[in-house]
Amino acid sequence: MAKINDFIAERLPLDDVMNALKHKQVPVHKRSIFYYLGGICLYLLIVQVITGILLLFYYQPTEAAAYESVKFIMTKVSFGWLVRSIHAWSANLLIFAIFLHLFSTFLLKAYRPPRELTWMTGMALFGVCLGLGFTGYLLPWNELAYFATKVGTEMTSAVPVIGDTMKEFLRGGSNVTGATLTRFFAFHIWILPLTLAGIVGIHLLLVQKLGMSRPLSQQSKPKRSMPFLPHFALRDLNVWLVVLAILVGLSYYFPAHLGDPANPMAPTPVGILPEWYFLFMFQSLKLFPPHILGIEGEVFGILLFSLAGVFLLLVPFIDKKSAKGQKSPLFTALGWFMISFVVFMTIWGKFG
Amino acid sequence: MANTHEMSKKPARTVKEPAKRDFLTKSLAGLTTALVGFILYPLGKFLKQPPAAGGNVKRTLAAKVGEVPNDSGKIFRFGNDPGIIFRTPGGELKAFTAVCTHLSCTVQYVPVESYILCACHNGKYDLNGQVISGPPPRPLEEYQVDIQGDDIMVTRA
Ligand code: HEM
Ligand code: FES
Known about the structure:
- The structure holds 2 protein chains of 2 kinds.
- Chain A is mainly α.
- Chain A has one domain (2-274): Cytochrome Bc1 Complex, Chain C.
- Chain A is built from 15 helices and 4 strands.
- Chain A has helices at 2-11, 14-23, 35-55, 66-75, 80-107, 116-138, 143-156, 163-171, 178-210, 228-253, 276-287, 297-313, 315-318, 320-323, 329-351; strands spanning 25-28, 224-227, 291-292, 295-296.
- In chain A, helix 5 packs across helix 10 and helix 11 (276-287) packs across helix 12 (297-313).
- Chain A is globular and about 65 Å long.
- The N and C termini of chain B lie far apart (81 Å).
- Chain B has 2 domains: 17-48; 59-156, Rieske [2Fe-2S] iron-sulphur domain (Rieske Iron-sulfur Protein, 3-layer Sandwich).
- The radius of gyration of chain B is 33 Å and the shape is elongated.
- The longest helix of chain B is centred in the first third of the chain and has 37 residues, at 11-47.
- By secondary structure, chain B is of the alpha+beta class.
- The A-B interface holds A 147, 150-151, 154-155, 168-169, 171-175, 177, 179, 264-272, 286, 290-291, 296-298 and B 47-49, 51-52, 55, 75-77, 80-82, 98, 100, 103-108, 118-121, 135-137.
- The complex binds protoporphyrin IX containing FE and FE2/S2 (inorganic) cluster.
- Protoporphyrin IX containing FE binds next to helix 3, helix 5, helix 6 and helix 9 of chain A.
């Protein structure tokens, strides 16, 4: 064993990585619990990759076969229901964890220098994960997903100038058809995951290089910390096991639905909703009147959300007070406003 | 080692080197730009889905006469899009696109109250395709209907 270790160590500088990890310290304070969220995202991401690859053993990405192949996974393949349900639940929990991670790093102002790029790569991860959720939703080719995708892709045509080109690019034509399914498959399986892997790599490298930030509110308190290895890593792993138990429990008691197959020549049934994490946008868009200031209400709403996205992406450069290490109550208020807005709109969209 | 030896024998080369490197950098930049163009053009074209067959169907069989009794409707395939054909309580046959002008869900005929409903966001149109309520910004496009024997045919402009 020692010989093999030496053999590898001489050829591969793994020691450097281990040394860096050994020196990593995690601050200990009242808000330390939020340091688990990024790790939970990472863990759920790994679960997604594994269960996703397993699903590929049986899934068939064509208009004719997609629905039946998913039904086959759910009814014929041993533990197929479990693999698919874990993939579905883990996707939902991942998005949920990302929301928590995003909002907690926002409220703790962890985006302040030198972690601007950590924040911005994080925003990119958020976007890519939403894209994964959107493209994955269509793959079972059921009625609900078909029409939700129709509505979702139609919205892109509200973007000024390039909107129609974008819509056609996403749909592979002017309609949602088998061509859309093939495209979404390419996005969901290759393009988005590879992009995600690259950005996660940079995100983690930055986290590693810059160390964990100590929130401004905790600066004046005694600076305690614990080593990442093994103290924090062991805590991480325990949390991951708990998350796994939650995943399996949810999948067992609430397995993923399939519903009816998509039929492009049937009227849209009542109750078409996007995934819950798009609901807050969907619900807000409903509130706009058909026309505002001479443009369609939807267009106006989508522009507004795009602006909010850009603002959030650039917040490390906008929040000057945090950057100087001062308290920044305006941005704290803004954070709470965003959280309340998203929570309220989501609940309203779901049950209203 | 071998390199320095060689260079010391031919000092002229080291003098020319910067000029040559400048040329190489510029030529590389030029060629790369051209190459990117050569890649992007076909890539852009490749990503554009070829038009599906049936996109310019102008006339189609929507239903058999017996399929659409008074105060009822039916969705039919018109090229690649759904269309809706219905008979009003007064017995008139009418056809429209079934694609809602709001966010493209498929509409349906609601009997008794006799209007066209889009269930996605509760958009309502009257039997002339005009918006009654809800988010749709424009009326539905109307098609011409004629009957050939037992067939209801629909034509669009
Ligand atoms: C797939 C998605 C993501 C993964 C796998 C991930 C992973 C991680 C991990 C493992 C950490 C270190 C532990 C922690 O602080 O929680 C971290 C830190 C961080 N992440 Fe993420 N993250 C993701 C998305 C995001 C998003 C959406 C944002 C916000 C826009 C974000 C912003 C940050 C920031 C600012 C830090 C530094 C926190 C500090 O130093 O206190 N991340 N991330
Ligand atoms: S798509 Fe018809 S009302 Fe929204």
